[in-house]
Amino acid sequence: MIVLQTAASVVISLSMVYFLMLMGAGLVQLRRSRARLGVQSAATYGSERADVPAAMPVYFLVPCLNEEAVIGQTVAGLTRLAGTTTLVIDDGSDDDTARCAEQAGGFGVEVLRRELPEARRGKGEALNAGIAWVRRRVADRGEDPARVVVCVMDADGRLSDGALDHVLPLFADEKVGGVQLAVRIRNRGSFLTRYQDYQFWGIAAVTQFGRQATGTVSLGGNGQFARLSALNTAGAKPWSASLTEDLDLAITLALEGWELQTTPHASVDQQAVEKLPQLIRQRTRWYQGHMMAIRRLPEIWRSRDLSNGKALELTSYCLVPWLLDLPWSILFHYCLLMLVLRWDQISIVAGGDGTAAVVLAAAFYLFAFAPALVTGWVYHRRDRRWGLLKSLAMANSFIVMNYLSFTCVWRALLRILRGQTSWDKTARVREAGARPATPTIVTTGRAGRPGVQTVGGAGLSARQEERTR
Fold first, then answer.
1. Neighbours of 35 (CB within 10 A)
2. How do residues 159-195 score in pLDDT, each as one tens digit?
3. Among 79, 96, 134, 312, which is disulfide-ready with 108 (CB 3.0 to 4.6 Å)?
4. Please, are residues 98 and 66 in contact by the beta-carbon 8 Å criterion?
5. pTM to 2 decimal places
6. Element (H, E) at 24
7. How would you class 411 by CB atoms within 10 Å of its CB: exposed for 0-12, middle for 13-18, buried for 19 or more?
């Protein structure tokens, strides 16, 4: 019992220190940038039409696998930005993804079609095919890789209007190799989807701001910007086969000496997962990829390009599932059991005084729920349209939603022990205003008309092929 008490104290202490350091640093960084917590609360997404070319050449990579429900709105938003190039990487879809992308983007979008057996080998491989295409196009155009920015967008992602005006100036610092935007959930109509927004917008975004201090902001799979010359230092294939290829890339770029930053003045939105079983599958994949990042620890510790602060921050982040999440999934129940068993002792301390017992219970509640209450307040400040009481209620639900994390971290561990590395794609839903495309008829005639031409497992759409002849 003494061992469990000691372990619980250690885990709670580590969690509190890690949480307070990151959240505190995030609030400090916001203050330094003269930004309010709610700076992006009223942002609009994907509706900007920019006629003036971006300050630097920007290439959008949108990897897709059966994304006809959402790809149209994403491509339409990206192709309205002058001076940018949008490449949709159709990773062996068997629906109308390619046709929907072409219809939405017109001549402003190009489609790279990957076919089996090369296709469907994970997001990393699809992105590597896309970056090879970008490198060829950059060379043909005579562009300087150090001044070219590559942005990875999910098929359901939309940039906040004016995002490039805030992202591209960060690359004026030659040490900056990547920039990650905060994520906002747009389908916040249910408790499950609202909770995902609370996690992304109220917790993850602020802690990411805090990681600016060490230049180790973690990259995500949506709204991920990187300098092409930085990607080139990561090798011919910058993205790995990891289930969290974005985190793996962030570690690689940090090891190569690049700074990774973010900005509070721009964000990206996406769909939340609307069903619990699908959310469990998604988070299990995230946990598994995060947990396997510990394989990179020897590289981090040996690196001479990392400062002590960067190495410590990266190490701490990689160890979170192992040192905090897994132990807490057990110790959490031990603490609850001890609370129930020792309730009589609390009553004795209160001396039978009902008021004193209430005070003691309130004090315990404030101590135990302090981190959750802080994030609830932060979430309210991030979006005042969601009331303070509702935000605090969302924070209190953390104790129940802990079981989502517990389930996913143990499922991830089981998959690791079994050697399972299969990749589960996040499910999408068709949104209002997104109309299904007309049926696609794929032929194998001359130039693959009217469908998609493939060459060696990866090709351009028939329309784009005609344009490049």
1. 15
2. 999 999 999 999 999 999 999 999 999 999 999 999 9
3. 79
4. no
5. 0.89
6. helix 2-32
7. middle
